[in-house]
Write a sequence for this structure.
């Protein structure tokens, strides 16, 4: 098993005249927490969207877990082991918290229409396992008492946690979090940090977009900085923090 | 499972079963026409529940649903009538009809399911009309569908020697054709209800709901949205095909006229008016919308005579007027449908605040 989990090679994406990503190359290693930072509009979310197949890059590509990722195939990215959360939370609002996580099991289960119609033993067993796993995950992110509430009625912090639980349900090798601490107070952020560290300890590699510099520098093993769609630096936090270009572009601002 | 053993629900189910068994005999007291109306009500329940998979579960607005019903009806008509001299048995025709309808569903669905909402509605509407026009014109150069004249003398449903048309003596009772069809249709409707219920609470059912809620998030968790939507389309179409077959057999006659846009809209109205995605609501919608126009047909004429002593408005126009008014009122005062699912009701209430 190679040490490299994800390699982005000269990924480019334009929107009309806006160069949202300019030949961004970076490498994420297995088991690390990798931070992706940069000012507003730097292209961080666009990078996520290209990687997870929601956008087709105009140039370059990704190698994940030893094989190229197919552009324009979001469901396959999930199948390969990339899960994500969204900057502006996207839950299935009118489904319960538990059902949201159960949907996350879709890609790792297989009951079809015939199974549903005939309710054979395999389908029933799978359904029980889906439910069990989903409720374990709600427990893992500590919102088990909200299991039967509609997702849209959860508090902001709980919605963020639910999105993480849903992503974990797909059994990802790489979990991508897009500004998970946005809008959280200090206590919630500290709890989130614990959760992220726990997920890494349990063996999942994490890619973290975050504006909270303290959180990123404290949590990440390595950090990449984007500015105007270009990669400024990729290194350990101690080096990134002292880099003059980074201070100008971002930290100094 | 334990809820079936609950004495109250067991009693409720027994009551419904007795009512369903006895109903056609009660209706028959008013004449066989009422039994036939009942038959159609249940056929519409079947159709509406088929469409519910597409519209209610997967959230795809399909305005051409009647096309699949037409495919099923014509399949039966061509394979069991003197038109081609074929008289195949039901267990051959019905699967072929369902299969062809399913194929038509996939054919329509695969290029169009990237479209959303209004656009999909327009394409499906066009498809429905295309199928009807095909049936209307496929009588030359080779006469396949017999054009606008339609196909007559279609075989009834039969299991071996037991035919569903005509009166037979069963258990010392004389049972008419429409009454026999009634029981067949009730059996089919129960089947489709069970399938709907099971699908709704399955892995696939959850995937449909997820797509309806947020398609991008659904993709991101690994749902192949295109295939899952196509599955809904194909399933709905298959049920339409089966209903069409039974319709052709029951009527003994099909013509393109039965498959107009109005019919598609009617079935959609049953699903929406009853309570989209909520199975009891859809059943209620189908029963009401199929029986109400008939009640009006028989009711408005005599009512006018009694009130005014003469016919002021042509009963047929008045019927549509009252019917339209009823639809508008329901949508105004119960926008989630007459019997919506608890969640959907909450959704709309919150949206209205
Ligand atoms: N779908 C789109 N169509 C057009 N322009 C887009 C689209 N998505 C992103 N952009 C543009 O690409 C640039 C990068 O946006 P992106 O959302 O990736 O930034 P970001 O780094 O995530 O910023 P933020 O910190 O505000 O979330 C911005 O200029 C944005 O306006
Ligand atoms: Mg962003």
């Amino acid at each position: 098993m190679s040490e490299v989990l994800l390699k982005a090679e000269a990924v480019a994406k334009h929107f009309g005249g806006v160069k949202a990503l300019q030949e961004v190359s970076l490498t994420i290693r297995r088991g690390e927490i990798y931070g992706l930072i940069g000012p507003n509009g730097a292209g961080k979310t666009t990078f996520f969207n290209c990687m997870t197949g929601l956008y087709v890059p105009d140039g370059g590509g990704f190698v994940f877990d030893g094989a190229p990722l197919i552009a324009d195939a979001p469901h396959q990215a999930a199948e390969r082991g990339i899960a994500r959360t969204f900057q502006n939370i996207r839950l299935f609002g009118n489904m319960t918290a538990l059902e949201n996580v159960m949907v996350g099991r879709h890609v790792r289960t297989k009951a079809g229409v015939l199974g549903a119609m005939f309710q054979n033993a395999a389908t029933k067993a799978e359904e029980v396992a889906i439910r069990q796993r989903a409720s374990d995950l709600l427990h893992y992110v500590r919102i088990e008492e909200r299991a039967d509430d509609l997702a849209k009625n959860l508090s902001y912090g709980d919605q963020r946690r639910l999105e993480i639980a849903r992503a974990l349900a797909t059994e990802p090798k790489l979990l991508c979090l897009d500004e998970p601490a946005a809008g959280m107070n200090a206590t919630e952020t500290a709890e989130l940090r614990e959760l992220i560290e726990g997920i890494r300890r349990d063996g999942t590699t994490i890619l973290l977009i975050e504006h909270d510099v303290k959180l990123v520098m404290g949590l990440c093993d390595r950090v990449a900085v984007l500015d105007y769609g270009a990669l400024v630096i990729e290194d350990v936090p101690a080096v990134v923090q002292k880099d003059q270009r980074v201070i100008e572009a971002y930290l100094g601002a | 499972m334990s809820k079936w053993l609950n004495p109250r629900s067991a009693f409720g189910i027994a009551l419904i079963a007795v009512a369903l068994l006895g109903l056609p005999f009660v209706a028959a007291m008013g004449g066989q026409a009422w039994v036939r109306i009942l038959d159609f009500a249940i056929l519409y329940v079947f159709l509406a529940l088929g469409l519910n998979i597409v519209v209610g579960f997967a959230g795809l607005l399909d305005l051409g649903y009647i096309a699949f019903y037409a495919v099923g009806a014509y399949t039966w008509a061509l394979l069991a009538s003197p038109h081609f001299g074929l008289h195949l048995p039901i267990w051959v025709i019905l699967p072929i009809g369902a299969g062809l309808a399913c194929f038509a569903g996939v054919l329509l669905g695969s290029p169009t399911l990237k479209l959303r909402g209004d656009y999909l509605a327009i394409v499906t509407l066009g498809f429905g009309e295309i199928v009807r026009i095909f049936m209307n014109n496929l009588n030359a150069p080779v006469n396949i569908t017999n054009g606008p004249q339609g196909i007559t003398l279609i075989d009834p449903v039969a299991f071996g020697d037991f035919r569903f048309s005509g009166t037979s003596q069963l258990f010392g009772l004389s049972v008419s054709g429409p009454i026999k069809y009634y029981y067949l249709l009730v059996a089919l409707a129960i089947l489709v209800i069970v399938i709907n219920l099971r699908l709704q609470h399955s892995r696939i059912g959850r995937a449909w709901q997820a797509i309806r809620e947020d398609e991008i998030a659904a993709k991101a968790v690994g749902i192949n949205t295109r295939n899952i939507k196509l599955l809904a389309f194909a399933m709905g179409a298959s049920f339409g095909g089966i209903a069409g077959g039974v319709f052709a057999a029951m009527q003994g006659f099909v013509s393109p006229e039965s498959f107009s846009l109005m019919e598609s809209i009617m079935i959609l109205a049953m699903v929406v008016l009853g309570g989209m995605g909520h199975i009891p609501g859809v059943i209620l919608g189908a029963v009401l919308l199929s029986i109400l126009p008939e009640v009006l047909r028989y009711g408005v004429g005599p009512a006018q005579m009694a009130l005014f002593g003469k016919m002021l408005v042509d009963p047929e126009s008045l019927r549509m007027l009252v019917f339209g008014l009823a639809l508008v009122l329901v949508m105004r005062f119960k926008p989630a449908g007459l019997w919506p699912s608890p969640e959907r009701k909450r959704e709309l209430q919150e949206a209205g605040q």
